[in-house]
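Retro notes, structure queue

What went well: the backlog is down to a handful. What didn't: a couple of records were mislabeled last round, so from now on we paste the full input next to the output in the thread. Example, using Arginine N-succinyltransferase subunit alpha from Pseudomonas fluorescens:
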Amino acid sequence: MLVLRPVELTDLPQLQRLARESLVGVTSLPDDIGHLRRRILDSGDSFEKDVQGNGPENYFFVLEDLTTRRLTGCSEILATAGFSEPFYSLRNRHFTSASRELNIEHGVPALSLCHDLSGHTLLRGFHIDAAWVRTSAAELLSRARLMFIAAHSRRFAETVITEIVGFSDVEGGSPFWDALGKHFFDLPYAEAERLCGLKSRTFLAELMPQYPIYVPMLPQAAQDCIGRIHPDGQEAFDILEREGFETNSYVDLFDGGPTLYARTSNIRSIAQSQTGTTQSGLSIDARGSYLVSNDSLKDYRAIVADLDYRPGQPVALNARMCAALKVTQGSPIRLIAL
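Corresponding output:
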């Protein structure tokens, strides 16, 4: 059985393995043991805090196989993007120019550096082992974060965003970066992403061009990357799109990947999740698969379970499910159909 839970300091060696295996462009998961250790400690502090609003907290989760004790994935929620420093991205919108004398009006797409997305809650750091791609484990890893938001809504903003990793080739090169960012930093794409993960995107963003970049002036290969998803990022995109997230006019600063956006109240696993109480120790005549979580804070747990769920009635869980969720008879739980 797989369980999603908050990361612990003892997870550090396995977390570094996940970071090493993660896709180039997942900047929130750099392969640096010191940085990862600080992230774990920051996450632990966030789960311990008594907060009444969204602030700088980050909530880091891992997906653990309870049989082997192997970590198979990780994901994260940053309560407020741009809380301590601007959260930079590129706004992709048309600039319109006109000539009254010639009776001509022409719109040209242009990319403008901005920090419009500061203040939103940010989903980041999604990575799952290749063996679990396109399985219910990926749904658990991504969507259980949303159920955590549902249980602790005061800790998060009214809107949620996430950046999907943009296209890069098999050698780790990005046509978008080569056409834009590389002119301002003599660095390959992978190294720029690594530095962004270790430090912040601010020091890179502040050296980027401050004026609009007209898209038609970029090479065609770079233009084709705007809003394009890396093949290995497609599942993360698809899961959240089914949750009600939509693309908008913002793309990633480094690889041109799309940004997804949703109002918290419209996200499926938040708006449609149901609460109930646990009835333990019973046999289960399973009628469907569900994501199930407790509503705890620092002891948050979530699993996938086959259940006989009937609204308004206690939810029967076997002993193994109860142990994984850290619940007992009468404990509150949250669930939504897989």
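Agreed that this is the format going forward. Reviewer comment attached to the example: The chain has two domains: 2-92+112-269, 273-337.
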